[in-house]
Design a protein that fits this description.
About 35% of the residues lie in helices and about 20% in strands. It is of the alpha/beta class and about 450 residues long. It folds into three domains: about 100 residues, Rossmann fold (3-Layer(aba) Sandwich); about 190 residues, UDP-N-acetylmuramoyl-L-alanine:D-glutamate ligase, CATH 3.40.1190; about 140 residues, Protein-Tyrosine Phosphatase, Chain A, CATH 3.90.190.20. The strands form five sheets. The protein has a six-stranded mixed beta sheet, with helices on both faces. It has a six-stranded mixed beta sheet with strand order 17-18-22-19-20-21, sandwiched between helices. A five-stranded parallel beta sheet has the order 3-2-1-4-5, with helices on both faces. α5 crosses α10 and α13 crosses α14. The longest helix is centred in the middle third of the chain and has 16 residues. About 50% of the residues are buried.
Amino acid sequence: MISSLKDFKDIFFIGIAGTGMSALAQYLKETGKNVSGSDRYFKPGVLNEIKSKLEAEDITCFEQNGEGINNLIELVVVSTAVEDTVYEVQKAKALNIPIIKRSDLLALIATSKNTIAVGGTSGKSTTVAMLFEILEVAGLQPSLISGAGLTRLIKQNKIGNAQAKKGEWLIIEADESDGSIIKYKPEIGILLNVDKDHKDLPELMQLFTQFKNNSKTFIVNQNNKLAATLSQNIEQDFSVDENSNAGFVCINFSQQGFQISFSVKQTPFKINTPGKHNAENALAAIAAANFIGVDLKVCADALKNYEGIYRRHQLIGNKNGFWLIDDFAHNPAKCAASIRACQPVAEKLIAWFQPHGFAPTKFLRNDFVKEIAEALRPQDEIWMSEIFYAGGTTTKDISAKDLINDLRALNKNAFFVENRNDFPSAIQSHLTNNCVVLLMGARDPSLDKFAQYVWGKLN
């Protein structure tokens, strides 16, 4: 029975290339565990960047064929995407090796430190990164387990989504999509927002209520109506509404290009990231850091040098008058926020979105149409390519074209380009010398390469 990190030394991850899995693998390696793993994306003779970076951390990687699982392995970890029918799972069972879910392992890790868990349907990775930056500058040597790589760590040739340090604080993402958020019992829980995403709102509220009950201190976004109903103490909450009674309020917000500025309790902040939603994320990090004793001036100094995270309004470049931005936005609220964040930069926005999963797209169809339609200016355009399918059993009874037709019916400039590789040539004549091209999507591991493809094709 595995009940603490002391109960095992040798651990194997099935699906180790996944963002959540690779983060735990790196974290445990840094704490002294023997870590290995496999992934379906690891193929002989095929370069895999994640594999190379894991191996550089002395994490042994295998093809997903069972060769890495033997009697020396004391614990096997699987993600929610790994089914019991996978051969490696069957082999681990035959060898009587304990198997746990990724979220259960993260819950074990969370009990080993004072944990700050960031929850909500949008903005978790950004808030985790901002809070990590603040505690790092404050000299608290924080640990990190994130859903996205931090640019400052990626520059060190790391994946950038995990770090184990000697300080008492650990910052993690608490995921509601698989219900694992209720497994954590953090010192501080942060709730950024509650918007329809993978689940209906009543089910989400049930999960976030349990998250609140599990947290010693709970900090919420007073500007989100549903999150505000779970407030524990408004004086420790935050809001971008200047008229809010929250303890941490964003005053005099403005955006110049890709930089935002505002004040909190007479302390000025400037951050190199766009959008009012990122001011909310920053406020959440500031509120939590200040609660544990970090001065607001230290928070401001830290965020002034914030470098962002992988595929969150990531600037690819600027040429011939247009900017290319790559973003992880994938639910209705995130897509709308991403669109709005880019609009102050240029007169025209050309947004492209690749939905993921047929069932989620069907579930959120009306919400996507409503949120995107409301966010677009008359001169803006929305393009979509066909839904990303990651495999598994599903009913393919919806197309991204259906969403585009819905948007056209609302008189929006909406276009469907089934094969995304045709997108650059399709929009070439739509470009102006003052526009932003925004790419949005998630779950597809090739989206970063697609951004580079678009950059190379447009002129």
